Amino acid sequence: MTVGLPPEEGFLCPPDDFAEFSRAGVVVVPVPMESTSTYGLNSCLGPEAILEASRQVEFFDAALGYEPFRVCGGIATARSLDVEDLDGAQLAQQLRDAVTHFLMQKKFVIVLGGEHTSVVGAIQAHCEYFTDLTVLQLDAHSDLRESFEDSPWNHACTMARVLDFHDSLVQVGVRSQDKPERYIATEHAIPNFYAHDIHNSEEERVDWIAKVIAATRSRVYITLDCDVMDPSIIPATGTPEPGGLTWRQMDRLFARLCRERKVVGLDVSELAPIEGMAASQFTIAKLIYRFLGYRFAP
Q1: Which CATH number describes the domain made up of 7-295?
Q2: Three-class SS of 112-168
Q3: Is 80 exceeded by the pLDDT of residue 99?
Q4: CA distance 242 to 220
Q5: What are 139-189's pLDDT values in tens digits?
Q6: Distance CA 157, CA 257 (A)
């Protein structure tokens, strides 16, 4: 895993000396796993699509006024995790070990997953490495089913698997769940900021971001399912749901979260590229880069 991709194949394609593992403060780990998709397919192609799109993102962020790749010390990209013939539990263990390796080197790790369950190992690694940590789930779906289609590792079970090893979870952007998931969320006292409530709050000029941050501990790990954003912005996802969050809402959330909490890691999943339409992966690539600008703000 310490053998990385050359800059021209990695995230952003920074200058060579800013893409070296020995120097980079950030490591990107692609995990192109897809085995349980139930509607739209091709999330396994998402990591590579995001990497390719990122190389079209400008180094200089006009809104921030600086180049995030410099303030974070550089961005190195690992070779894709070998997911062939792995079931969900096996993949989680391998990814947990790989991410722990980078955390021990004091790297900030970003995992680009396929379907959402593919990143569970990264979440577990951070939960074991850091104390006083909240997992902040940005997602259109609760993903709290104990099992779905006879599999506990179905993408609809992602956060149920996280609850197996961690007890602090906050959900933002949810707008699709089944009735038992609502009961599970209540049973575990999971703060849930539904998308419709967020939109209503903004109309009423209520500070929903402050409430989200207040529900978290001092350290935060972000797990971002691309379908948290409205399909008018990110149509390239396997299970799009209307009424999602906007670029502006995500941008404001990241800006304040990074100011008021210690964000220790990030994963992005469920980007399912649509042939001939690059906007979704470019938007996600730029959102990741903007996030890094906030996280490592000078």
Answers
A1: 3.40.800.10
A2: EECCHHHHHHHHHHHHHHCCCEEEEEECCECCCCCCECCECCCHHHHHHHHHCCCCC
A3: yes
A4: 27
A5: 999 999 998 877 888 888 999 999 999 999 999 999 999 999 999 999 999
A6: 26
